[in-house]
Design brief:
single chain; two-stranded antiparallel ribbon; mainly alpha; globular; 2 strands; 72% helix
């Protein structure tokens, strides 16, 4: 080794995953470790450098979430299309609710079970699909899920009886939705921290874009080319989105091969338990308007089925700002838990106000306002839940657990409302009282969880 006039000191420091070697008064030429006489370097220094070198080479630590960049925002696009295919289609169920009730001669409660089972399976399967993502099977899971989605839609186009519809749209498509939704929400959460609520809001806006596109397809084609081909065209839209999803989706966190499907320790946290119970109550009531606004417009206001679809379009379309604006409020000012408490409370109050609507103008106003706040409830609860999870390797299972809990609310909420409508001889008052009350109970439980976590500090972000 060439000797310099000054003694060479080799120091090694690690910051994050980078190792730097500091030298004093050394020429700008890089030092080749193979040319260094190891007798001149203390053993302690060699061991330290070796340890740091191995740490740098360890690929198991992906580092902190990038919180931006092309790859991260590409995953947001993936998530948006996943929600477009699943929730966007489901949010259009008001189209199917009115059509199926008329053509299949089934009660509103019976028809509600098809959509409710579909939503139930999205959330119930989240425990398993979320754990599969943690274990490194994300691509396997979404491939299976997207395939079932497409199969379910095309089989729905062939359905002429209630049981066929239930199997195709309720079971098959619900299974596909459940396999793709939770892992994708958890995936996006691994790319963002500071901007997580905004990222998830853009993903959740797929609910609104899909909920606008699919009703437009139905409104333009249903009475021109018939039910079967209208549904098939929707299926081709879902198929095209699936191809984009599979080509762009990328996992960032290394797999966690071991671990249970349920992390029982999470239920020892009172804030987590109250949050889960609050969201269960909120989701018992939040979808009521999406299912029944079109039938309400036809039965109570007396407008045509085509005009009633316009109300559903507005209810879904206003969900774009209804998901983005609350997310900005949550990220920049209030925090996701504080924001969702406000939005659940106002959504419950609005359902009470719906009972006073007796004109088309009043129903338009309700659709605009409730569409905004109802969308905020649906988009805020994933980032609020993620804020309770500090270990990102457990994020998939934590998200999946709460999704499975609220699946009970999604399964029962709309059929209960349908049964209450039948009980009231076609009137909507009993169902509206139920929807508003159960959402306000949910807001109180969420507030209790927030108090447990941060105390009675009103201005503290949470």
């Amino acid at each position: 080794m060439a000797h310099h006039s000054e003694q060479v000191s080799l120091g090694s420091t690690v910051h994050g995953s980078q190792t730097s070697i500091h030298s004093k008064d050394v020429s700008t030429q890089s030092i080749n470790p193979s040319t260094i006489d190891q007798n001149e370097i203390p053993t302690e220094k060699l061991e330290q450098a070796s340890l740091h070198t191995s740490a740098v080479a360890d690929p198991s630590d992906p580092g902190p979430p990038p919180d931006g960049g092309l790859r991260a925002w590409t995953q947001v696009l993936v998530g948006h299309l996943v929600v477009f295919n699943s929730w966007g289609y489901i949010s259009s169920y008001g189209v199917f609710q009115a059509y199926y009730t008329t053509t299949l001669k089934q009660s509103p409660s019976d028809i509600s079970w098809v959509g409710s089972v579909q939503i139930f399976l999205i959330y119930f399967l989240s425990t398993f699909s979320g754990r599969a993502m943690d274990a490194g099977y994300y691509r396997h899971v979404i491939t299976a899920g997207l395939s079932l989605q497409v199969l379910g839609v095309f089989m729905t186009s062939l359905s002429t009886k209630y049981w066929q519809l239930f199997l195709a749209q309720g079971i098959c498509q619900g299974l596909g939705d459940g396999l793709v939704f939770c892992p994708t929400v958890a995936l996006i959460s691994t790319y963002f921290v500071k901007n997580r609520a905004v990222a998830i809001a853009f993903i959740a806006s797929g609910f609104a874009t899909g909920g606008t596109v699919f009703p437009i397809i139905a409104r333009q084609l249903l009475y021109k080319i018939g039910f079967a081909w209208t549904i098939r065209i929707m299926g081709f839209v879902i198929l095209a989105n699936a191809a984009v999803i599979l080509s762009l989706a990328r996992v960032r966190i290394p797999p966690r091969k071991t671990g249970p499907f349920i992390e029982w320790g999470a239920f020892k946290d009172p804030a987590y338990v109250l949050f889960s119970a609050g969201m269960l109550c909120a989701f018992l009531g939040v979808y009521f308007a999406y299912y029944y606004i079109a039938p309400f417009a036809e039965d109570v206001i007396g407008i045509s089925s085509t005009s009633s679809l316009n109300l559903l379009l507005v209810l879904n379309a206003i969900g774009v700002p209804g998901r983005i604006v609350p997310a900005i409020l949550a990220d920049r000012f209030l925090g996701p838990v504080n924001t969702i408490i406000i939005f659940v409370s106002l959504s419950g109050i609005l359902i009470y106000c719906w009972a006073a609507v007796s004109s088309l103008g009043g129903l338009w106003a309700f659709s605009l306002v409730y569409g905004f706040f109802g969308a905020g409830v649906q988009s805020l609860f994933p980032p609020a839940l993620a804020s309770l999870t500090t270990d990102l390797s457990k994020l998939g299972i934590r998200v999946g657990m709460v999704f499975s809990i609220i699946s009970i609310g999604c399964l029962c909420g709309s059929p209960i409302a349908g049964a209450l409508i039948e009980k009231n001889n076609g009137g909507y008052l009993y169902a509206q009282i139920f929807g508003g009350t159960i959402m306000l109970v949910g807001a109180l439980l969420l507030a209790g969880g927030r108090i447990v976590r941060t105390g009675l500090h009103v201005r503290r972000r949470s």
